[in-house]
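Hello Y.,

Per our agreement to keep a running log of every chain we model this quarter, I'm adding this entry. I've kept the format consistent with earlier entries: sequence first, then predicted structure.
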Amino acid sequence: MKLFKNTIATDVNEKLSFKEYAAYSSSVAVSRIGSAMNGFFGGLVASTFLGLSESAFATYSTIIFILGFWDIANDVIVASLMDKTRRSFGKWGRFKPWLMIMIIPFNLVVVLQALPINSYFPGVGDTFKVAYLVLLYFLNDAFSTFYNAALTALNARRTTDNLERGYIASIDSILGSAIGSTGTYIAAFLPFILPNMSDAERYFYGYGFVTFLAIPLSIWNIVVTKERITDPPQAETPKLKEVYKNIIHNKPLMLFMLSEILGHGFSIGYGFMTYAFIACFRTEQFTITFFENTFLEFTYSYNDGNYAALLSFASLASFVTTGISLFVAPIVRKWVDDKILYIGMKLGTGVCYVLMFLSIYPYEKHTPQEIFVNVVFWYALHGLTTGFYNIVPGLIQMAAYDYGEYTFGERNEATVSAVKGTLSRILTNCTTFVTNLFLIYVGYKQFAETPELMPLDAKKSLIYLFALTPGLFSFTSIIPMFFYKLSGKKHKEIVKSLEARRQQNLDEINDMATKGDK
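Predicted structure for the entry above:
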């Protein structure tokens, strides 16, 4: 099989600069804040904030579900443009131009998706709202595929040093975990910061401000980042069919992606957390005493219906365990193979959520206080796997890139990222569609603005689905990784061989340039 010499190392001994770490960290931090806010408020826009009727909501959900399969064609377009054009744009490298082109329209569309149409244009009907959301979904999908594929590829080419890759992943992990619950905190405090507004309006202004910060910080990250794994001036370009064939034959990558696909079902249950809290606690009043009869005793009173405050409390409860995980994950990784850590974190997550379900079953035999305490306890304990979630999967994917280059002579990060992103969005659309239909089926959509009238069966269904589904899918996602053979020792040997190969490619190019000058 012919190996394409399509990667070189600009300097295998060059280290990431402090400026690059700082730019990456600031860009990731503000991006995480935006993601956290969107994760909390995003699903509520169509289901709760826009005032769509049940039929319009069902229509919107169905259209988005069908449009999700457009990602397959979109993936091919993006991959063909990015990976077929195998050349660097001078000092900008290969992927930065794509990011600079897409950063403004991508962020603009995301902000427009948060526009509170129902508050600003109360006379607008369901048809316009559905058409507006569908159009923005289509544009977001097109822009985000380019942007995320280019950003993932750029991140994978920052350094040839696997240890530095671990540092980058650790930074992402720390910021992701520390900021991951920001959406709930912001939701709890926005009523005090922006009074006399609806939740939808607060989300729009808050998200707009975060985006205002995200654009310049993202540009800074792009400008200072250097591609240390890059393309020769005259890179050989394989056919797109050959690119996909090599990706499919990249067994470690396929097993990892299959595990991630199966694990994606986790989001079905996790996505119900906000809805479950609205249904079960919006109209409740209770007082909980922690560490009773000790010097740590404190009392928490919930009586204002601010469900975001309860979600913030749940996030705060996991702060200690998450901190432990973030501290332990990079240390443990020095002695334990990423595959074992991956399986362990999935297993730990599954156990926590199954025990959460058992602790609140049957629903009617527990008081709201007991349900809340049990959910928060197991949710907090789940924080022990958070650090591993943010470090290990990304490193396994990068190892699969290395395996692809070692075996077939090409990395194809953009194509892999586009394919993975496409699968993720298709699965997200499927889970969102199932979630939306379930919200209609159990009666949440009907009683979203009057939770005090919500039937008991609806509350039970929402809290059960949140507690049980993540555990079941976590267990399922472990199965493919038992067949994953790219161990730590084998990967180190591959990386060493690749460094030698890249340096040889660079030496050959330099020799040719020297002969040409003579």
